[in-house]
Structures are given as structure tokens and as C-alpha cells.
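User: I need a structural model of COBRA C-terminal domain-containing protein from Ambrosia artemisiifolia for a docking pre-check later this week. Nothing fancy, just the predicted C-alpha cells so I can convert them on my end. Input:
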Amino acid sequence: YSLWAILVLVFRQCTDAFDPLDPFGNITIKWDVISWTPDGYVALVTMNNFQMYRHIMSPGWTLGWNWAKKEVIWSMVGAQTTEQGDCSKFKGGNVPHCCKRDPVVVDLLPGVPYNQQIANCCKGGVVSSYGQDPSAAVSAFQVSVGVAGTSNKTVKLPKNFTLLGPGPGYTCGPATIVPSTVSWTPDRRRKTQVLMTWNVTCTYSQFLVSKHPRCCVSFSSFYNETITPCPTCSCGCHNKDKCIKSDSKRANSVGINTPRKDNEPLLQCTHHMCPIRVHWHVKQNYKDYWRVKMAVTNFNYRLNYTQWTLVAQHPNLNNVTQVFSFDYKPLVPYQSINDTGMFFGMKFYNDLLMEAGPFGNVQSEVLMQKDKNTFTFKQGWAFPRKVYFNGEECMLPPPESYPSLPNNAKTEAITISAIAASVIWLIYIFIW
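Assistant: Understood. Predicted C-alpha cells for COBRA C-terminal domain-containing protein:
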């Protein structure tokens, strides 16, 4: 029985790590040895996020590994280790930056002196998803390693890489030697290459983060007054005894929004007990178009979501005409299928989803052109098949509970019901 349980657990982790909407998404960590030193080497470490809609939000990434021998870190530029370790065996004033066998590295914060910076560093560990901003989907630092090999044959690759982004979820494979990185000089007339390169690939598994979902979806429509809420205990009710009622004075007390080091949430009391709820409202029906309103609500008093992303899978996303208040990018992992899109906040406008409270929500509307051959409101067609928030799949209501289309409904007589449903929808958003 125990062996079977282990096999099931391994299978679940393997399948959960594969994302069909982003089949090639991963974080690749590249080590480029750019020069040899008397007792080691200097390496440029670059972290590239190739995930289309999963980013690393504040407080940022944490990278760790184990040295293969007795290496030390003499100095770093663009990052730092969280501990120095025991460097007592080094005499004189030349003391290494870190002597631990298992160093843990974090990014520097913005605004550090220029002599501590290199390109793509010092963003507090925040890394954009590749789909949002490829130019910001990279982080880098430079490290000088001592008591190590001084040639391609004597250097031993670090082992047991770990990546927190910022919490658990990533599993890193072993370091593998790859062809040395080649680059052009600024005048584009000469190629140069580094002395040695190895890569580490890290993939994400939602199962490693939590056994429960961390967001849920609710539905409503203009053609039915019924609101389909998130399923009860969508995200598990293990925090039910620690939650805060929305009308409680504790919600306005000083220090309530202070994050904890263990990222323990402090949730508003709801029947679903999720930090995030996505509401999809079928708002209006025109002759050639139909309009959807989306709202994302944060019920966590201790967390702001930076550079958040919302991914929806819906058959009519191949005919998006206009998106209001959000940025939008279609995701086409398979060239023959165009039914998935990514929504994210506009920079410096609503790319920060505030903690629970009056400002803890973002909203937008989407206008989609009808496909005359396939368009219908019947059988829940107007609602998404899958929804992801920040790269994690959200819990959807059961299909039989979706708002149904009345048998005698006509598209010409929808104005009054549309207004009523919109009012109910707004009340639902602000009450919960």
C-alpha cells in the first residue's frame, strides 16, 4: 500500500508540473565562467524566466545550492548571500563573502550603489513572466568563487539547486555542461565566448505549493438572476478559525497588513476561504458582439499581488475585439488552437492588486466578436473552461450550477434583466 501511495504521489507531482497551457515554461539558470582567478573563477549567473504567465513576485526569488568541494564565495555583485557562515580559517583582512557549504542567495534591492550593480540585477528578486515583458523576465548576478578548480577539467559543478519564487513550488534538475555562451562585441564584428557554461532547469508544480487551490471562480449573467458562487471550501477551510469578518474592527487595526516571513495568509471570512476570487459576468449581448466583465478580488490582508496575471481558456477568445482596463495577450501554445488568453494589469495603473479591503480588487471588461457558426449562450458556453491566477489553476463551480439560459429568452428583450443582473453583481462584489 505504501509503495502504491508513493507511486501515486510521484505521478501526481509529475503531471502537475506539466502545464498544458504553457508546455515549454521553465526557469533556466545559466552559469557562465567569464574568467579564471588564482584559486577559482568568476561567473555570471543569469536566471531566465521562460514561463508565459507565471512570474516571481515580491519578496522575490531565493536561490540555493551545495558546493561540490570546499568552495567559498569571495565576493558578489548584484546579489548577496543571506548568511556568511564560519570563515574563521581565513586569516588577515581578506575574509570571504560566504563560507557556507550550502549558500542561499537573494537579489539586491533597487537603489543600491552603482558599484554593487550589474545588468538585470537589483530588482528585489521580482522577475516578470515572459509573456508580460520579455525584457524584464531575467535576473542576474556575478559571483567570484574561490578554493575551486581553475580549468574546465578541475571545476566541479554545484549540486542540489533549490529555487523559491518566493515560496516553494519549483523543482530544479542537476547542473549540466552545455556549449559555452557566445556573444557579439558591440561593433558586431567579432564573436567572443565564455570559458565554460552550465545550465540548471527549474519547473513549477502547484502541488508542491499547496494541496488546496488558492483561488476560485464565480459566475453570473444578464440572462439569469442566479449568481453561481465559488464552491464552499474551494481552498480548504483549514484557516476558518483564523479569518477576519469584513465588518470586524480588527480589519482596520494597525499592523494587520504586515506580511509574515512564512507567508501565512490572514483571510477575510468567506464560504470559499480563498485568498483570490475571480468573478466572470456575462454582461451584455449585441448583434455582432458580446461583453464580459471580470473582477479579481483579494481576500488576503497580508499580501499585495505585484505584476499579477489572469489566464482564461475560452473558445471565443480567438475573436477578442477590445479589452478595457487590462492588457491582453493571446497564448497559442499549439498553433492550431487559439482559445487561451492572458490578462494583466497596466503598468503603474492596476498592475498591483492591493490586500483585502476597499481597494483590494481590479476589474475590466472584454468585448468579443461572435462566431455565427458556433456562438451560443446555452450549456454554459459563455463561461471559461479554465482560469489561472498568477499561474495557479483556480477552482471552478460544477458545470450543472452555471447560470442557465431560460427557454423563452430572446436577445431583443434583455435590457431590464441585464441591468438587474449588473446591480446584483456589483452588490455581490462589494459585500464579499
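Before docking, keep this in mind: The chain is about 10% helix and 35% strand.
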